[in-house]
Specification:
The complex is a heterodimer of chains A (113) and B (443).
Chain A lengths: L4 H10 L3 E6 L2 E10 L8 E7 L9 E4 L15 E3 L2 E3 L12 H9 L6
Antiparallel strand pairs in A: 1-2, 2-3, 3-4, 5-6
Chain B lengths: L5 E7 H11 L10 E12 L2 E11 L17 H14 L2 E7 L15 H11 L5 E6 L4 E6 L6 E2 L3 E5 L4 E4 L21 H7 L1 E5 L3 H13 L3 E5 L17 H6 L3 H12 L4 E5 L7 H5 L3 E4 L4 H13 L4 E9 L7 E9 L14 H9 L11 H20 L10 E5 L4 E4 L24 E2 L1
Parallel strand pairs in B: 1-3, 1-8, 4-5, 10-11, 10-13, 11-12, 13-14
Antiparallel strand pairs in B: 2-3, 2-4, 5-6, 6-7, 8-9, 14-15, 15-16, 16-17
Helix pairs in contact in B: 2-3, 5-7, 5-11
The chains are: A alpha+beta (113), B alpha/beta (443).
Chain lengths: 113, 443
């Protein structure tokens, strides 16, 4: 899957270290050292964005480790992909979002309410 | 004493066939042809390296040098092209030629000179294994320069993933006299030797998996790796082969139930019991020659298939379900699917779909408590074992078979699934370049 350059540029402003990889017909965007919202532990984490429909979710964000933040989270979407075990919340987004929008929406549950 | 390293070369059948076909073409003046096979190297653990091959490139006609003293001589452009590919793709590279006869090939005096070519290529992609490979009609020889090693070594195993597989071990074939396997000798002269040397992985040791491991032991499969993080419960005993009533009270690990049963049948079996999810010990799965999945959810199947494809491992999936609609009688159904690298995957075959995965994810993967009975699991497991045996031995003579069997547990029939008619012959989801450890491209 190719992503529009303007969307990649936009995403890089938030997360500069990005790369792509494919597995099983899905394209994933690997985000290294993604800065998490204030109060999260750790404060940075590697994450994997799947911008397409997968397992009923319009887009998915997987994290290399579970994240501690102000509220308790249900880490119910654990997955092994691209040779790594990832953790995710059950968090739905709308379809047709730009990559940066997807990222921000997936980070929303980690922000202080 | 330093333990010998296991080096396994795996390639999909379509690439193997492409090499043989290409190397058999006549050249205008060279007696033989040469090509380059590209691969990725995965150090699975301290003692095991798996080399997965993903692409073959013939040497073009113009890059041969006329020299009657050797079978084929190629020029520096051909070698530069191979080096360029190894450099840009950060991959391994094998010089390949064919000794077109049956039996194991061995290097000639001039072939040994190929080490110098290999050294040159190794200089540009040092993290990968490189070497030269000699094919015969039904065998292999390779000399490999492993990353960060000075000496060349020979691999311990070659494996061509196809129906049937072609598996060659470095250790010599020693036919053994044994009455135990007399009645299955029709599987081929080498069958018992292969059963003693392959490694079969079984994921899930419940209703399906417990039948599988029992049959593996009866057949004489020595090396197995079994994965299950579960303990025996009262609701398991209606279908857990080898499970005892006392296991409920003791909450015996399912891996131990499997091991206990297998060892009673085959005392010299070497069973690696993993009381954990395979995802937490993936290297143990990656070492297997064939994996049989007896798992509950579609998501688990998807992950298992992806891991197996990456390491060019044939994956056999079984599963059963009981559905009830209104006033109708319950309906028992099931499937046996073979996901063979290079051939259609479970998505291509229509067995896995986004809809099924989505519905399952909506329930957070909860699959427990579904109706399960012993006999359908037995039918499905037996069919899976039959396919596994055919893959290893090729006894049936069937070639390039795509397997998607559908089980009707009410009529007690098992037949090709109707979706097979509409399946493409190639997989669009798992591409050859994505074999081996994952690779990320900066954007």
């Amino acid at each position: 899957m190719d992503f529009p350059q303007d969307q990649i540029d936009e995403l890089k402003k938030i997360a500069p270290q990005i790369s792509i990889s494919e597995e099983g017909g899905y394209t994933y965007i690997m985000i290294e050292n993604l800065k998490l919202p204030e109060g999260c532990k750790p404060s940075e984490v590697n994450a994997l964005l799947c911008p397409a429909l997968k397992d009923g979710y319009q887009s998915s964000m997987f994290f290399a480790q579970k994240i501690d933040c102000s509220a308790q989270k249900d880490w119910k979407r654990n997955i092994r992909v691209l040779g790594t075990n990832w953790y995710a919340l059950s968090w739905q987004t709308l379809s047709g979002l730009r990559l940066a929008e997807m990222l921000m929406i997936h980070l929303k549950p980690f922000r202080k309410q | 004493m330093k333990k010998q390293k296991n080096v396994i070369i795996r390639l999909p059948k379509n690439i193997h066939q492409e090499m043989i076909d290409d190397l058999r073409r006549q050249h205008k003046y060279a007696y033989e042809r040469v090509g380059f096979l590209y691969s990725y190297t995965a150090n699975i653990d301290k003692l095991t390296t798996v080399i997965t091959c993903f692409k073959y490139e013939p040497v073009s006609d113009k890059n041969y040098i006329r020299d009657d003293s050797v079978g084929a001589k190629i020029n520096s452009s051909a070698i530069r092209e191979a080096m360029q590919m190894a450099l840009t793709s950060k991959c391994g590279c094998f010089h390949v030629h064919l000794h077109d006869f049956e039996g194991l090939p061995s290097p000639s005096r001039t072939d040994k000179g190929l080490n110098a070519v290999v050294e040159s290529i190794a200089n540009v992609a040092s993290g990968q294994a490189h070497g030269f490979l000699i094919l015969s009609a039904d065998g292999f020889y390779a000399n490999i320069k492993m990353p960060n090693e000075k000496l060349f070594i020979q691999p311990t195993q070659f494996s061509v993933a196809g129906y049937p597989m072609q598996i060659q071990f470095a250790k010599p074939f020693n036919p053994k006299e044994s009455k135990v396997y007399d009645r299955q000798s029709f599987l081929g002269e080498r069958s018992q030797f292969l059963f003693e040397n392959v490694r079969i992985g079984v994921v899930g040791l419940g209703g399906g998996g417990s039948h599988i491991v029992q049959q593996l032991a009866h057949i004489g499969i020595i090396n197995t790796t079994v994965f299950d993080d579960d303990k025996t419960e009262d609701t398991n005993l209606n279908r857990l082969i080898g499970g005892w009533f006392s296991d409920i009270k003791k909450a015996t690990l399912k891996t131990l139930v499997a091991k206990r049963m297998m060892k009673k049948i085959l005392p010299n079996a070497k069973i690696e019991c993993i009381n954990d999810k395979w995802q937490n010990q993936p290297h143990l799965l990656q070492k297997c020659d064939i994996v049989i999945g007896c798992v509950d959810s579609y998501a688990q199947r998807q992950e298992l298939e992806a891991e197996c494809r990456r390491y060019l491992i044939p994956y056999i999936d079984i599963g059963m379900d009981v559905t009830t609609a209104d006033k109708n009688a319950p309906y028992i159904s099931g499937q046996v699917v073979l996901s063979m690298p290079g051939l259609p995957c479970m998505f291509c075959l229509g067995f896995l779909t986004e809809k099924k995965l989505g519905l399952e994810a909506g329930k957070y993967g909860a699959t427990g408590g579904r109706p399960q009975v012993v006999w359908p699991n037995g039918v499905l497991a037996s069919s899976a074992i039959g396919i596994m045996i055919d893959l290893i031995t090729g006894w049936s003579g069937l070639i390039d078979r795509v397997v998607y069997l559908s089980y009707d547990g009410n009529l007690e029939t098992i037949a090709d699934h109707m979706r097979l008619k509409y399946a493409s012959d190639k997989c669009i989801h798992f591409v050859p370049e994505n074999t081996g450890p994952p690779k990320f491209k900066k954007i």
